Amino acid sequence: MTLALWSDARASTRLFPTRPLSLAHPVGTAYWMLFLLDVTSAQVTVFMPLVVQVLHGVSPLGAGYFAALRSLAWTLAALGSAGLQGRRVRLVLWLGPLLIAGGIAGQALVIVDGALLWLGVFLTLHGVGIGLGFAHLNSWTIAAARQGEASLTASSMATIRSLGQAFGAATAGLIANSAGLSQGVSATTVAAAATWVYGVCALIPVFLLALALRLLWLRHPARAAHHLTPNATTG
Question: For residue range 187-221, what is the model confidence (pLDDT) as tens digits?
């Protein structure tokens, strides 16, 4: 990925905007947020159907519906927050990551020995956290684009998210296999894998919350005006 970004920065026709992962600019900060949102989403969902079947006795069909709770909560929260403006947008942009952190930490606590009801509650909380600010994060990212890079910024956001999904699923698989899942599917191996996957995953939303606060700081009206000036577009 480092080589790909290095090559893209020197290409005549680029896939990514200027310095796409720079934390000194709102676009780079927002890209990191989009990336980590999908990393955590992939990590907590890739093994969820297996976990609830083996450890909680849910049927395969029921496991599919259970895993869909996050997506349903995401959709409803997105619809409910779509019309927010001004300070309320700034509120949900940090409240969302905070709910994600709480949702994933809760899942880590109850995934093995807790009640299925509580697992569903924390999974739903995770979805609400994503849905609250996701659309506003997208619009903020495009609005913060450097001069002449709005289309490039918007078109590459899906690529950043896809990378997050890929990294999330890959790291979850590596952790689960290292924890013993590669030895076969049993209550013991699934419990060990879930403990490690969800335990490690619970750490990532902390960085997501820090990035959200960083983005809010960068998008303060005075600093946002600086980033959008022609001189700033060359940085």
Answer: 999 999 999 999 999 999 999 999 999 999 887 76
Query: What is each CA distance from 162 to 41, 157, 158, 217, 225, in whole angstroms?
Result: 11, 9, 6, 27, 30
Phi–psi pair at 148, nearest 5 degrees? 85, 5
- How far, CA to CA in Å, does 174 sit from each of 43, 50, 52, 198? 11, 16, 20, 13
**Cα torsion through 213, 215, 218, 221, rounded to 10:** -90
Whether pTM exceeds 0.70:
yes
CA distances from 126 to 13, 43, 67, 152, 153 (A): 38, 12, 12, 30, 27
Count of all residues that appear for the chain in the document: 235
Q: Are 193 and 39 in contact (CB under 8 A)?
A: no
Query: 83: helix, coil or strand?
Result: coil
CA distance 27 to 82: 21
Cα 9 to Cα 30: distance, rounded to the nearest angstrom: 19
Top-level CATH class of 24-226? mainly alpha
**The two structure tokens encoding residue 158:** 């899906």
**What are the counts of helices (DSSP H) followed by strands (DSSP E) for the chain?**
10, 0
pLDDT in tens, 63-88: 999 989 999 999 999 999 988 888 89
